Amino acid sequence: MARPRLGAALGLATSLIASAAAAQTATVNVVPQPLSVQPIGGGARLVDGMPIIAPAGDPGAMAAARYLSALLLRTRGLTLPVLTAPTPRALSAAILISRAPAPIGEAYALEVAEGKVTITAKDDAGLFYGAVTLWQMATVDGGRGPASLSGVQIQDAPRFAWRGLMIDSARHFQPPAEIEKLIDAMALHKLNVLHWHLSDDQGWRLEIRKYPRLTTVGAWRKPEPGSPDGAARYGGFYTQAQVREVVAYAAARHVTIVPEIEMPGHALSALLAYPQFGAGAAPAVADQVKWGGFPYVYGVDGKTFGFIEDVLSEVMTLFPGRYIHVGGDEAERERWSASPAAQARMAAMGAQDPAALQAYFTQHIASFLDAHGRRLVGWDEILLGGELPADAVVTSWHGIDGGIAAANKGHDAVLAPAPIFYFDNRQGTSAAEPPGRGWLVRLQDVYGFEPIPPTLPAAAVPHILGVQGNIWTEHVRTSADLEAMAFPRAAALAETGWTASARKDWAGFFRRLPAELARDRALGLNVDPAAVSVLPVVGPAPGATGDAITLTTQAGLGEIRYTTDGSAPSAASALYATPLPAAGSLRAALFLDGAQIGPVAAWDATLLRTRVSQDLRLCNEKLSLNLEGPPGATRRTYLVNPADPCWVWPGASLDGARSVTVAFARLPFNIGLDPGHDSVIVHPPRRPAGELEVRQDSCLADPIAVVPVPPGGAGARSVVTLKLPPRTGRHDLCVSFTGLTFDPVLAVERLQLGPAAP
Description:
Elements: H1 3-23, E1 36-46, E2 52-53, H2 59-76, E3 82-83, H3 88-91, E4 95-99, E5 108-113, E6 116-121, H4 124-138, E7 147-156, E8 162-168, H5 176-187, E9 193-197, E10 199-200, E11 203-204, H6 213-216, E12 220-221, E13 234-235, H7 240-252, E14 256-263, H8 268-273, H9 302-318, E15 323-327, H10 334-337, H11 340-349, H12 355-371, E16 375-379, E17 393-396, H13 401-408, E18 412-415, E19 425-426, E20 436-440, H14 443-447, E21 464-471, H15 479-486, H16 489-498, H17 506-522, E22 535-540, E23 547-552, E24 559-563, E25 574-575, E26 580-581, E27 586-592, E28 595-596, E29 601-603, H18 606-609, E30 610-612, E31 617-618, E32 625-628, E33 637-640, E34 646-653, E35 659-667, E36 691-696, E37 705-708, E38 717-723, E39 730-737, E40 745-754
Parallel strand pairs: 2-3, 2-4, 4-6, 8-9, 8-21, 9-14, 14-15, 15-16, 16-17, 17-18, 18-21, 19-20
Antiparallel strand pairs: 1-7, 5-6, 5-7, 10-11, 12-13, 20-32, 22-23, 23-26, 24-25, 24-27, 27-28, 27-29, 30-40, 31-34, 32-33, 34-39, 35-38, 35-40, 36-37, 36-39
């Protein structure tokens, strides 16, 4: 990923784009789409015993050959031996992996013709990615056994040098095997940077031998009552031996790991272990179980810099890549304002604003890293307060503004903008979506992102190193949820990072999506089905009384097939075209080219009168979280704004409704806000325990139904039924709680309209 390699890749990509445009190149069913695809005559058939031939004495070519052989055995059950001295007969039907003067870097050429497949590249990465493309071509049908390939010539090179995923192991810990599983998946999508977030307020995950309390203390926390993390101690860390294994595993797959050690903020877990390195008093251990921002920052004195340099020295022995990420985001500066040592440093600098201390901090650490041959990477806040070191790299998360500002100043930048590249946001509106942030970021939203705005000066364009998706794990607790949040959106990210913008096409990507999902599942990934799922929308029947059900999909592509007799839909089932009568059983699925590509969704008459929280609209969407409920036999999620727990059922049909039943849970308020924070809305109660209130048409209207909140602590669920006055027609229903406190958070799970309450 050195800059010369980036320049060479961009030059090759530019020339290939021009030739592809002139030749009107075809496509091939792989992700990301190659630069140039030319159909030719002939083809090849991969069968048991077909050799993969690599030059003797070429470890890079042999590694690509063995990796391809293992993939085909795993996913198609084919045994393809790797040979270095083939017989003439073997050469007539073989996969040939060899060197050529060009293409260089990650670029490669692939040809299928006359019974053979040939992969050529100058460098190891190119040979590896050529093998990955061939594997994808061989697994389009999702079957086992021999695979037939059409004749084709492919010339390919990446658009960007940095194609990354950020995994947050600090908030929730993933075992090393899961990290390696994700690295495998990244490599097979030509993603080449794993940004590994290893420290934060909630946990320190990396063994540092000189400072053992970082892991004996900082790696563990005791969850609050009602937390899905359970009641026992939660945590974990990676030993240095484990890290070396993961780094080697990644390197073999041409993935560079960029470790992140947060500083000067997000330092709570480190300062719980070594409070002497913080500015101000020792931190509160109770804050470690909360999410959000905290005031704890490192000091700016010599002993603190000595501690950080010791830590980074051990980090550099474990991670040989050139980039070291130091965070730099959301550093609260109040403690520096109250610190005599920090104030003395400001006076010596002649600075009036504590922001200058962060610039000083960043410059000090950048100089240390530079002296050891490394480059500092930080979130876009490192642009604030002073001059940024010339070699520093900016990760832009406040939209793309930070990255564009950095590029215009001559700094390299990686675009990782929120919310579109924050993969802990929901990618669908179903209650089956994993817990995470509540805003909707669909697959096509990720795919449609263009990294280079037209206003960016040509001289600044080379400074955009690439793109990165971020998976923060405050609410992404399990490995299965992590995978679902990543895939298939990581595939869309991969095509944005690899494929030239002129070759990108959303409809084409969607047609390749079924094969992509099948490959991911064959690798054991838990992929999210939202992009290919059918969802119902209940509304008034067109031109008639009563309700009707409109069936929708995210992309609006493909065909919806449905049944009303309880059977599973097939390609021969009725084709959905207009809203359906809202009665009886309904099953539906999405089809493309006659094949089912999405799960079967089923509904019955309860759909008309029931809404889960994900079907409702938050009254205040400034904060939106899809939170996991307390541990239990049934896993439940709750779409809620913890700072304003209030929901609206838009256009609820109140004809015949005389009651509303509300199921809700008490979730721990583990958000990093002070009790008096002005963004938390508390509605004064009539009773000490508070009430549940229902309003019609406006959340500011007088309640039409009120019921006391039954007693219960964090983690408890309740179901209450409120009597409704007679109403007709469609009205918005607003549901909210009153109370003296916002901890625990009262979170609606489900609303159901019914007849008169008993």
